[in-house]
Specification:
13 helices; single chain; 0% strand; Growth Hormone, Chain: A; 413 residues
């Protein structure tokens, strides 16, 4: 138990460092290129390869983590992020717009691979360490997942603020160099503190075996696509550009997204206390996922109506409404993050988690693409309506989630 808790703490701390720099990177790229005059769609385009690369990285990363061990994949993710930061820092202001966009796309793609390799390895480590204290100890697993996910998102929020602040004080290049140095220290800690073969097991031998997940994982992955698409359709481009256009500074925009993400992370950490628990780990948690999805759908609908009617003090209505959205979304996300590990088998947890987070990355990709397109076509109103539609689909999919385990096979039925 003590060794499992220590490994959990080390993995969480390593992912904190990674997430801090990843959040800062998003603000650096978004605000730096918006200041240079790039359109909303072009800004979204800069993140597309970042998100698309994550789909492949999660699938391959889960298999590789099972084949070679979680610790090695965590190390690979950190090294890859350092390479991405280094390439991005070499961006030359004298290049043409097309050359700059191509360079940023490649560097962002590398960072996207790094993010999802690291996330898959870290979440898989939780399943492996929780299994050491009881494979079906749902209470311990939910608490560890909730704290890991919540604290990670709080660090991402701090990263958003630091990204805006560093852009104003250090500039684009020096900010990237500082973040690469921080990750080098995190990498050293992982090498020295984690067992090199943690999570190593027999990997799937074919693509068919890799993709043929149980019904619970398949349904949850589909729900995850539209859940995170519903967030990023307004989060990536729509709201930051809307607030900046309303006269907010870089630090103010970064500060709002930081506060939103930190608050979202804190609620995620508290989610086990907000959800009625069941002994089997599914019969109460699955209905909760359905109920919170339905409630979340109503919020962007109300905000879209306010934006369409040009409500007085609209920017503050949006800020307040998105605060409520963040609370409900955090509970949804935390329940989903728990359910994937509840559905996953402990022997190939990395593959199951990788498959699930590939769906997560696909959702971010679709949300990012639609964020630029919808904002350019119809402003903030269209991005919020797109969010509501995705959440309706998410609710429909959660109706397919299994609510129990087979006693003989220990798989969702």
């Amino acid at each position: 138990m003590q060794a499992a808790a220590r490994h959990y703490a080390i993995v969480t701390a390593a992912y904190w460092g990674f997430t801090l720099t990843d959040g800062a990177l998003r603000m650096l790229v978004l605000l730096h290129f918006y200041r240079l005059g790039y359109s909303p769609f072009t800004l979204a385009f800069l993140f597309l390869l970042y998100e698309a690369a994550g789909v492949v990285a999660n699938l391959i990363g889960g298999w590789l983590a099972t084949r070679f061990g979680i610790t090695k994949m965590l190390m690979v993710g950190l090294v890859t992020q350092i390479i991405g930061f280094t390439l991005l820092s070499q961006l030359n202001p004298e290049w043409t717009a097309a050359m700059s966009v191509a360079w940023v796309l490649v560097a962002q793609g590398i960072c996207g691979v790094a993010k999802d390799l690291t996330k898959t390895a870290s979440k898989s480590a939780i399943k492996v360490t929780a299994a050491q204290v009881g494979d079906r100890d749902a209470g311990q697993l939910f608490q560890w997942v909730a704290w890991f996910t919540g604290s990670k998102n709080a660090m991402k929020g701090i990263g958003f603020f630091l990204g805006g602040l560093m852009l104003e004080t250090l500039g684009f290049q020096w900010s990237l160099w500082c973040m690469a140095g921080l990750l080098a220290l995190v990498l050293l800690g992982v090498v020295l503190a984690l067992p090199p073969m943690m999570g190593k097991n027999k990997a799937s031998r074919s693509a068919r075996e890799l993709f043929a997940k149980n019904p619970g994982i398949n349904a949850l992955a589909a729900a995850r696509i539209v859940l995170f698409g519903a967030r990023d359709v307004w989060f990536v481009v729509g709201v930051p550009v809307f607030l900046y256009s309303a006269g907010w500074t870089f630090s103010m925009v970064g500060g709002f997204l930081a506060a939103w993400t930190i608050g979202y992370g804190l609620v995620q950490a508290l989610a086990p206390h907000l959800i009625r628990r069941s002994n089997d780990g599914l019969s109460s948690e699955v209905p909760a996922a359905r109920a919170w999805s339905a409630a979340l759908m109503l919020i962007p609908l109300a905000l879209a109506a306010a934006a369409y009617l040009a409500a007085p003090q609209l920017q503050w209505v949006i800020v307040g409404g998105l605060g409520v959205f963040g609370f409900v979304f955090a509970v949804n996300s935390s329940v989903h993050s728990y359910l994937i590990l509840a559905y996953a088998g402990s022997e190939k947890a990395a593959e199951d988690v990788g498959f699930y987070y590939a769906a997560n990355a696909l959702g971010r990709f679709l949300g990012t693409l639609l964020s630029g397109l919808l904002y350019q076509w119809g402003g903030l109103t269209w991005t919020l309506l797109g969010s509501a539609l995705m959440l309706f689909i998410c609710w429909l999919i959660t109706l397919k989630l299994p609510e129990g385990f087979s006693d003989t096979e220990k798989v969702p039925t």
